[in-house]
Amino acid sequence: MKKINFLPLVLIVMALLISACGNNNKGANTSNAPAGGNEANSGKADTTAVATLASVKASGKLRIGTEGTYAPFTYHDAAGKLTGFDVDIATEVSKRLGVQPEFIETQWDGMFAGLNSKRFDTVFNEVSINDDRKQKYDFSDPYIVSKAVLIVSEDNNDIKKFADLKGKKAGQSLTSNLTQIAKNNGAEIVATDGFNQAIDLLTSKRVDATVNDGLSYLDLKKQKPDAPIKKVDESSDASHSAAVFNKGSEDLIKEVNKALADMKADGTYLKISEKYFGADVSK
């Protein structure tokens, strides 16, 4: 009678048992693990939800959307450092909230999309308050007041007021409220990334004019008094700018408003304002 070797059979059975135990253990660990992105279970701030005071405190930072190309509000100095009026204001607000500012630079035309997708907690970028934006977003208390100005080349004598824009090319950011002024006066809009590009197009005679921020114009003329441009008209209405938040950030906005009020009360705001404009631009 032939002798049967049972050793290979025993080894196969043992391997199957070990594999089954391993699969059972893996399933048990998975079921007990905290759900991904769950702030309560993971101990980490959820950066995909609407920013609240609690979430900002938990992360230890305020994520701020800004251009970085819009002097004197948000730009890079000669050393390449991000600076500007809005940058200084947002930095001081963050300090008073007890968190670090994290600036995320984005072109103006993508700024609101970044806020919508929760890439930012807020935007500090001289954003004007208007009815359309108030339907979708919440604002802090205004911290800057400015007027729209009509800027042309210094040798342009055809455009003297906003109404003269009819049929002329105006360099504008497509989502800026200033663009609407140019459109309302019949201008042909040439899209730009921001103030600097609009001025470049103007000085190179690729556009006839730009409707832009009066404070930016004053800053440019202060920095470059020989720039071959001039202001020919100014809006009668002043615009009020503030930090922008997604709806649902009410408690965070309340603390930001408190920080802004305290800055104005203790002179910090005026110091920053005079640094860039030589005046109080909150009035």
Shape: globular
- The count of β-strands is 11
Percent in helix = 40-55%
Tally of individual helices: 11
What share of the residues does DSSP label as strand, in percent? 15-25%
Helix/strand structural class? alpha/beta
Secondary structure layout plus pairing:
Layout: H1 7-32, H2 39-42, H3 53-59, E1 61-66, E2 75-76, E3 82-83, H4 85-97, E4 100-105, H5 111-116, E5 122-128, H6 131-136, E6 137-139, E7 144-153, E8 169-172, H7 177-184, E9 188-191, H8 195-203, E10 209-213, H9 214-223, E11 229-246, H10 250-265, H11 268-277
Parallel strand pairs: 1-4, 1-5, 8-9
Antiparallel strand pairs: 2-3, 5-11, 6-11, 7-10, 7-11
Structure, described:
Residues 9-13 and 15-45 have low confidence and may be disordered. Strands 1, 4, 5, 6, 7, 10 and 11 form a 7-stranded mixed beta sheet that branches. The chain has helices spanning 7-32, 39-42, 53-59, 85-97, 111-116, 131-136, 177-184, 195-203, 214-223, 250-265, 268-277; strands at residues 61-66, 75-76, 82-83, 100-105, 122-128, 137-139, 144-153, 169-172, 188-191, 209-213, 229-246. Helix 4 (85-97) packs across helix 10 (250-265). The chain is globular, with a radius of gyration of 28 Å. It is an alpha/beta fold. It comes from Paenibacillus farraposensis. Residues 1-20 form the signal peptide. Residues 61-280 form the Solute-binding protein family 3/N-terminal domain.
